[in-house]
Design a protein that fits this description.
The chain is α/β, with parallel strands linked by helices. It has helices at residues 3-14, 30-39, 62-73, 78-89, 103-109, 111-121, 140-145, 163-167, 190-201, 217-224, 234-241, 246-261; strands at 18-24, 47-51, 97-101, 125-128, 149-150, 153-154, 174-177, 208-211, 229-232. Strand 7, helix 9 (190-201) and strand 8 (208-211) form a beta-alpha-beta unit.
Length: 263
């Protein structure tokens, strides 16, 4: 059982919804990023998605793209991202970390080497946006064999014919993208999301966590009522971009967590 599996089992036993956050590793710099990440569990975060900076993202809106550019300009690399996770693990042995990004940096390192290093750094799961199920032998199946969850995205365009393929080797949880488009764009609407979550849940026992378009505590509460949890990324990254102190960023995160946990 991975830390992700254990966390969702714990939440289910407590009758609570999951609150998941995304932050870009190294934004605006390594030390500030680490301070924020270290503060997330105390702010109510159940699972941390740690963004891997990449020069050419294809699913990210301007907010996340600019965060990646700031991190890269500050010298952030895949190795330093793993170093950040390892530093976090020195103080927190239980909060799950999901590394989210694109395949190119992993491919450049070598999949086997990367999986060994990620596991050693305390990474629990992967979301690799640009690796479809048809490429599962490339990274997904080796990741599972290495003890890492491989988390897949489902979207409003994932129809009933495609869904079984998407779910086939997915583990940990399913990340449902609530809108068509990029991160940080339109707002998620519970009346649209609810039926889609129910459709996916009919095909899997995995938790369904909804992300994209969740910006406020009210959004978090509304979406959490129709899902197993919510992900917030761009709204938090925007606070970091605006120069808020780590304490103020974490206070905002806590308000979102409180919203999600009222569901």
């Amino acid at each position: 059982m991975t830390r992700i599996d254990a966390k969702f089992a714990e939440l289910k036993a407590q009758g609570r919804k999951a609150f998941v956050t995304y932050v870009m590793a190294g934004d605006p710099d390594f030390d500030t990023s680490l301070e924020i990440v270290r503060g997330l569990p105390a702010a109510g975060v159940d699972v941390i998605e740690l963004g891997l900076p990449f020069t050419d993202p294809m699913a990210d809106g301007a907010t996340i793209q600019l965060a990646g550019q700031r991190a890269l300009a500050g010298g952030m690399t895949l190795q330093k991202t793993l170093d950040l996770a390892r530093s976090f693990r020195q103080e927190d042995a239980t909060t799950p970390i999901v590394l989210m990004g694109y395949y190119n940096p992993i491919y450049s390192r070598g999949a086997d080497t990367f999986l060994e290093d990620a596991k050693a750094a305390g990474i629990d799961g992967l979301i690799v946006v640009d690796l479809p199920p048809e490429e599962d032998a490339e990274l997904c199946i080796p990741a599972q064999q290495a003890g890492l969850n491989f988390i897949r995205l489902a979207t409003p365009t994932t129809d009933d014919k495609r869904l079984p393929t998407v779910l086939q080797n997915t583990s940990g949880f399913v990340y449902y993208v609530s809108i068509t488009g990029i991160t940080g764009a339109a707002s998620a609407v519970a009346t649209d999301v609810g039926p889609e979550v129910a459709r996916i849940k009919s095909a899997t026992d995995l938790p369904i966590i909804v992300g994209f378009g969740i910006k406020t505590p009210e959004d978090a509460a509304d979406i959490a009522r129709v899902a197993d949890g919510v992900v917030v990324g761009s709204a938090i990254v925007e606070k970091i971009a605006n120069g808020l102190s780590p304490a103020d960023v974490l206070a905002f995160v806590k308000s979102l967590a409180d919203g999600a946990h009222t569901a």
